[in-house]
Amino acid sequence: MTAACDTLAAADATAVADVSVETQRAVEQFLYRQAEILDERQMDDWMGLFTEDGWYWMPAEEDQTEGDGQPNIFWEDQGLMMMRIARNTHPRAHSQAPHNRLNHVVSNVIIESENADGDVIVRSRFHCAEYFRYEIRTFSGKYRHLLKKTPDGYKIALQRVDLVNREGPYDYVLQWWL
Amino acid sequence: MTWTTEQLAGLVEPDRAHRKAYTDPEIFDLEMERIFERTWIYIGHESQVKNPGDYYLAQVGRQPVIMIRGQDGEIHVLYNRCPHRGAQICTARKGNTGNHFYCSYHAWTFELDGKLEGMPAKREYEGTNLDFDDPEFHMARPAQVDNYRGFWFANLSEGGPDLATHLGESAGAFDQLIDRAPGKETEIVGDCFRMVQQSNWKIFLENQLDSSHPGVTHESTGKAAQKLEAKIRADGEEPPMELSFLTDFARLGHDGWTKFGTVGYRNGHSSLEGYMGLRPDDPDTNEYVRRMYEAYGEEKAEEILAVDIHHMIVYPCNSVQPPLQQLRTIRPLTQDKTLTEIWHFRLKDAPEPIYRRSLAYYYMVNSPSTLINADDLFNWWKCQHGLESSASEWVSFHRKAGQDEVRDGISYSAPESMSELPLRHMMHAWRDYMTADAGAKS
Questions:
Q1: What is the pLDDT of residues B315-343, one digit of tens each?
Q2: What pLDDT, on the 0 to 100 scale, is given for residue A133?
Q3: Is B380 within 8 Å of chain A by CB?
Q4: Looking at domain B168-212+257-435, which of 3.40.50.1580, 1.10.3720.10, 3.60.15.10, 3.90.380.10 is its CATH number?
Q5: Whole-angstrom distance, CA of residue B120 vs CA of residue B371
Q6: pLDDT at B442
Q7: Do residue B375 and residue A93 have CB atoms under 8 angstroms apart?
Q8: Cα(B109)–Cα(B83) distance, rounded to whole angstroms?
Q9: Domain coordinates of chain A in residue numbers?
Q10: CATH class of A3-163
Q11: Across the interface, which of B198, B219, B224 has its CB nearest the CB of A83?
Q12: Which of B100, B125, B213, B250 has its Cα between 20 and 30 A from that of B383?
């Protein structure tokens, strides 16, 4: 069992919290910056977005409430994220020649809850165009982030990504996180 | 052009194949007719449809079919087409139909074995040629449907070998998927991953048994996995065994894949011997082996565990990896597009960590975020584009050509080599299927 998955599963996914303008703004800036890191390929900054035990999760099924021990499209901790970056930036990662490019728009940012420590659960929607093999394909879906407030700003304890076309079929693979 | 039998036969030589076999749309149509609609094609596993009314859609050649569990518990395979006006009966890829099929167009209903049950204002058919007992008005069945230990297949044509004969030695891969379970049963986990390859279906089958590609194609992922292993060790921990699935690609290098033999069986089936050493001396494996001994007795258990197949190609539609409980099915769409369904299994009564190995492989190699198939699919796409070029008409299968050993109709790769035996073998089988008495249903 993964505690962060339990927290997310137990939270009301339709809640709208009454938060300060400052909190709303800080959370939005965090989400936009995360998207920008992918779009600009600033991978040195990616790992720092997550807590030491944070997870990036894209479930394979809509009703999944846990990533551990079951099939997922993505289920990555810091170790697997490090491996993905190392592999995608390796000179012989030949499917990255030429590189793909991502372009995200993140919107509809609703903070569901903010606890006494300042940790928040936030949901949002994204649209992402990928340019790859000289063609464009698009992805669209929903994010739910469980963000820990730390002295260094927000860190992701869990990011859940639900694609609208979750079940595929997938035309080629997802080399980077969305 | 219309391809004659002689022209088709001329596309395959002992050590090379013509590019048109991979790129020509008319050849693709002939493949559907003479291979995919004339031999046994995999539909699915019985555990996908546990309860009456449960169904899954599949594709046999160009024909959409439904696998469904009937009220009597029997599994049926039916064409997904209403005999009235041709509408597809089931549109969701999986589900439960309840106690009958219901056509959304005019409310014709069918029993779960396809028999016509009724429709609104049924009396208006009185005095017509519509006969409720005539199969013409039932949901049609493929000519032959059979299963091998719960793995279901259909053959759209009459005649030819029965399923067990067709599978021959390749049935051993299905045996392994079941027999490796201490509980002597295997079960699908979840839905499959589905990926579209922008390449001909044969390129996929060839790649699965091509032992000279992994060290090259997957070098970057092998190196990245080694980096992660080093980090884990630096943190004072032991890396999980699953990472070795990836580090093998770097550890064995470009030319270190010579100890894994390949075999070509009758009817195009082929295999690559295992290389992953999936019987390490660790507590999880030892507990698993203990349960196997308990279930089968030591001798039989050892016999089961000694079988070491990394991939078995069940020609023309499956790639089965028994030690990791993976099964891939291909559904060719066009000459340059192939849908793959990728399934994995849980071995009944095996310790959870044994399932976790299968799951890790499913994730790292076969999921839509795979770091392994990312490079495979890219290579196949490049091959498909390259083969459009007329720079040469031929694809080379020369590695160790002429040096395979044949015993009792089965071909074995030359020892200590990365022989392209399976590639030659499958294309020779392809030629035989494509040129077999074209008029008759063989």
A1: 999 999 999 999 999 999 999 999 999 99
A2: 82
A3: no
A4: 3.90.380.10
A5: 54
A6: 38
A7: yes
A8: 11
A9: 3-163
A10: alpha beta
A11: B224
A12: B250
